[in-house]
Records
---
Amino acid sequence: MTSAADFVPDRTTLPALREAAAECRGCDLYRGATQTVFGEGPRGARIVMVGEQPGDKEDLVGRPFVGPAGGLRARAIEEAGLSRGDIYLTNVVKHFKHVVRGKRRIHRKPDMEEIRACTPWLDAELERIGPEVLVLLGATAAQAILGRSFRVTRQRGTFVESPLAPLVTATVHPSSILRSRGDAERRAAFEGFVRDLRTVARALKARAS
Ligand code: URA
Ligand code: SF4
């Protein structure tokens, strides 16, 4: 079975990983996408945040979280008191999966096989960065990393045992907040997201002291 593992260089740096990922053919998703959207942020990042896959805007620009969900994420981390310079941003799947409907490109969830194929990139990123905290955004990222039985609704904002980082936690995906019906629901969803990120900020502070 093909996967990104056939394309990940053995011992290397983040820039070299990014370069190799640009040529990845580990699954079929590269065919319909504009480009690989690799992770971005400082090598010494204390936090790695992981989304599902690039969206429409990310696919065109080539950078993670630059679209509407990314804007919301940026506001939330600021409100939670996390610094941008501490965060490396990436996704479980590095190509935009979608279907074309007229002029629109509609997001499609990556399936288990595509997630399995792509995680060697995330593993390599985590290995190079060695973050103190891993924050999984939404069910796709959480279940890809923590297993199919993980439930974001029940377990969000708590720290779970994992070999991937000293502290590992999951929260909602910012896109889910954008899908809220009505202002009140959206505000509540945003507040919940910020609350989970404050838990991360507190835990980081506790480790530093
Ligand atoms: N949603 C994600 O999960 N990742 C992005 O990079 C953008 C939107
Ligand atoms: Fe490679 Fe991942 Fe893109 Fe599939 S989605 S081609 S595994 S980078």
---
Amino acid sequence: MKHLISTAIAGLVGLSPLYAQKVPAYLDESKPVEQRIDDALNRMTLDEKIAVIHAQSKFSSPGVKRLGFPDLWTDDGPHGVRPDVLWDEWEQAGQTNDSCVAFPALTCLAATWNPEMARLYGESLGEEALYRNKSVMLGPGVNIYRTPLGGRNFEYLGEDPWLASRMVVPYVQGLQSKGVAACVKHYALNNDEEYRHQVNVKVSDRALHEIYLPAFRAAVQEGGAWAIMGAYNLYQNQHNCHNSILLNKILKQDWGFDGVVISDWGGCHDTDEAVRNGLDLEFGTWTDGLTMGRTNAYDGYFLAAAYKQAISEGRYTTKELDEKVRRVLRLFYRTTMRKDKPYGFLCSESHYDAALKIAQEGIVLLKNDVVKKDKAPLLPLDLQKMKRILVVGENAIKMMTVGGGSSSLKAQHEILPLDGIGNSQMVKWWNGQIGFARGYVGDTIQSYNGVTVGRSLYETRSQAELTAEAVEKARQADVVVFIGGLNKSDFQDCEGHDRKTYDLPYAQNQVVEAILKVNPRLVFVNVSGNGATLPWLDKVPAVVQAWYLGSEAGKAIASVLVGDVNPSGKLPFTWYASLDQCGAHALNTYPGTWRPDHKVIDEDYKEGIFVGYRWIDKMKKEQGNAKCKPLFPFGYGLSYTTFKVGKPSASNAQLSGEERISIKVPVTNTGSRSGSETVQLYISELKPKVERPVKELKAFSKVFLQPGEMQEVEFTIDRSALSYYDDQAGCWTAEPGTFEALVGTSSANIAGSCRLTLKE
Ligand code: BGC
């Protein structure tokens, strides 16, 4: 008792100098972190060191209990905090406190073109993770959208390295401001899913540095990411989870990354490479499920017993081990050991608000033509005139937060599109029911690793019957809202495989065509993370790109359709009219060529730096306009108002050394309602000595304007915006010469330009 009282008093008055002396350096918060790491490292046994560099369960690795370091819990992922799984199984643990807010997929975030939304996303996700005691979030993913067949494009930030960089930095900062580490993935060149464990990517140094690495680099150098996840695939014949060039040379040496390299789950294949080539923390390696007589299957990891044995036999000193442990300890101090962490909360109103806001800002209005009869664009729906709204399509009633692979969630709620739209009484007209027709049957499975949700999608009617129902109801409707697109099942927007074709799946196209014959007032709402062919596009007056929008999906879609929200999203990728407009496919590089032993498939990125709009621009220049007009260009998106972007002017026509110049451009809302426009600045070198893209995005700014309001948008650029990667010298460089700053509202709509000269 006496002891308790004196301890309490010591607590009240602060620690006595005697007591303070007894606090070991590694626990002493007044000491610099590196000193605390040294101290901890000195106290750890070999077994403890080996233990902290590999997993102990599907998603956790041990701390050092003897010294008071708690276990480290990681979790997917980019779009919300994944529900807990069993210790060594992918099945749900069956917890009742692990439902979450599902945030929109990262393609939607990228489509906001608003870094503030990325910050909000990171912060909100961080708070959810804190509540769930997860210290590392396995995301965000920043692999470049190289082919529209890519099964995981929905989890990434689009085709452009600059856009992805600007969006990933605040996401990482927001998340980490909560004391939760971002684990940026999948480093690197994991641009498609098919054969992801066997693909050996061949890519030029220029394309590597100009296209595929910048977002990772920004996440590390500007965002200060505390962890990065190696990718499954190979580069230069070495798996990326222990790839000497990518990890030791580029990430750690050149970029100065001081965080932890975590293997993708099952991405580690070799002890020697893992030891030497920069992997710090091994996760997800296949274990024998404790069935083969080991006391702990995790001892079978490449960085576990085999590594310890090699050290004991003198094949390695502890040099590499200490370096790995040092990084892991640094991560502990940044996360689990941080005392001033904010409180976490789950499923809060603020998180739902954030999810809704991001969803609304990311939705892209792709088409909104005037309907002849109405003499007005179809959207926003005029609810005074359109009393009978018919919703058609499986995606109106399908939960999209479940499925798709590791980003699958157990959302506390997901407002389905039909429910979002149905909240308006207007749709209750068909025999007093909501005007809905299924239209087609796609994927009726609604579960992932034991999370089962949603209304039943069981359907016994034939396609002919479903089409007939849709047509019959459409005939009597004022307007048809078709909610289609892809879904998260295998071979669509889903991890593990790519799409087999670029077309929309199931009978969607056929049903759209049938409806158009009886009712031309059709809005197609495409739910996906990828583009697709839209063969009926000329006949459909309005098209909306709605992504996977998370918990508030239905609400967000409805708010745009009825005009409560004025859409302002812009495409983060080129929406090709056909696959052959995409460089990777035009050059027949996908999915690659199997080697004779059928163990490795070489995928040669022959299009080099010409990815997305860079390829389209090149084709336009070489072959003329007609052949290479995408359905919708990169950076494109309409609004319910109109904007005028004026002529840009530069503060200085010349630039030298480290000088910066500012480029100003007036933007006016010329329409009758308030809205946001994203002004984009592309740089073009007029006579480059090396081949360069016709233009490249180097700045953008989203402005909100009242009707009639004008604002001057200001961009600041320096020579880095004019640079390319010199693969001979192995560094970025800018050639003296003449450049053009092109300013517009998409990669295909340039409103004006100004010239700049770069001096030595
Ligand atoms: C995915 C990662 C994910 C990990 C853990 C892997 O299959 O590629 O993105 O974080 O599983 O679920």
